[in-house]
Amino acid sequence: MQIPSNAVSTWITPRVSETDGCGHINNTTLPVWFEAGRRAFFRAVSPALSFDNWNMAVVAMQVRFQRQIYLAHDVRIATWISKLGNKSIVVSEVALQNEAPCALGECSYVYFDYASQTAERVPDEIRQRLAPMLCETMKAIAS
Amino acid sequence: MQIPSNAVSTWITPRVSETDGCGHINNTTLPVWFEAGRRAFFRAVSPALSFDNWNMAVVAMQVRFQRQIYLAHDVRIATWISKLGNKSIVVSEVALQNEAPCALGECSYVYFDYASQTAERVPDEIRQRLAPMLCETMKAIAS
Amino acid sequence: MQIPSNAVSTWITPRVSETDGCGHINNTTLPVWFEAGRRAFFRAVSPALSFDNWNMAVVAMQVRFQRQIYLAHDVRIATWISKLGNKSIVVSEVALQNEAPCALGECSYVYFDYASQTAERVPDEIRQRLAPMLCETMKAIAS
Amino acid sequence: MQIPSNAVSTWITPRVSETDGCGHINNTTLPVWFEAGRRAFFRAVSPALSFDNWNMAVVAMQVRFQRQIYLAHDVRIATWISKLGNKSIVVSEVALQNEAPCALGECSYVYFDYASQTAERVPDEIRQRLAPMLCETMKAIAS
Question: Is the ipTM of this complex over 0.90?
């Protein structure tokens, strides 16, 4: 498992409410944590984190689970942009506990005008803000 | 534990993601279920369930836990209006599993104009729609 | 979008807490709903829905989003087994609102002995209980 | 609003999935955040954060909402023990955004033996570990 050196790290403290009866973190928690890891990405798109100009719609997400995650230790979410297309963006993510990769994620967005309900080209100013977290040679999940 | 005969029943099937490592339903799930039980109440306030005219702000909530709730059996949420004041409304709720009361809830709202950020009198047309679920002689939690 | 006639239907009433600031159902809610749709599958594996013999570990999940889902209308989750392998099972799911497909899901499990931490063959009695929801000629997401 | 100087601070970054269609943090998120703020408390009771000796059951919780909480700014949860009784413990909490108190919480636990299903005296070694976060002269919510 390789993680680009420019990936953004978000530290998550697991919550009791995120475990399940099997005794570890429930699988539906991972998409929530991966979304939490995309805060820098959201800020690049909507600098004030305002829903009035959110302009991002998820079209697909994928998670691979490699190890169970437990309540007791913090989790690092590593997040980078693995594809910056014309109208679409792919965000790749890895969840690590005790530095061991536990889950891999990929989430595809289209830049979206909610008013006209159409996909549009990602504007240049957003491309510039996304550039520091871009690494198109690595993906979290090999296709 | 008394429940008024005009209480609205909402059936909830417990989800794996709502349990925790202790093996039963996590306590933070109850406010979520009680909010789910208030759908008829929300419809009375905003008939199309549109966030454009939501006009309800929670000012307080309270939950008492009496029995653990398990994954295997459906849960009934019984919901009624226990106070319909000038600007405020109290919703009382009970969660029952196998007809045994497991949790009691009380949630206080003010009728709220988000634009002016002020509380206002609950309009008459909403009072009429709330009337069928009103029972001011019973509360879920004795004060 | 084709759904097998033996798919299990689970009706979900969207919750306010499952929406987000964009005004519709948050994308992280879909894995929760799809897990809720797998209750009949869980019962086939662990008839009493007891965590003591759960024996199912998620190895991968995938969701494709086709339409936004709103608070106002109930959602049907259609669930079937699209692959019943030696040690692994794939569950396919579709979320429909007003009978329009809004999200497609695929979730892969291995039959897992938590004590020995190894994958094992799905036992025959579980295969028999899964048979009524099996349709290996249809998937929710085309590979 | 007074907060004891020995309150434990937990910083929470609000998540998109924790907002709702009204555009701010959903009220059911607060019990989740307050539970997250009780991690030091949980560690005092179960040092390895293991569910095998959890021994804490929630009997009541209460939340007062004073200000809406928004996605854009981190939230501080201040947590202290406001009552350390024979068998019961009350945890008081305040959620602050931009240092303004937004929500107040009180959560009552009993020390509980799940095997015998009875409440028991909080053991001395746990009392010692709870002492640094004890302030019985302040409550979050005035009775």
Answer: yes
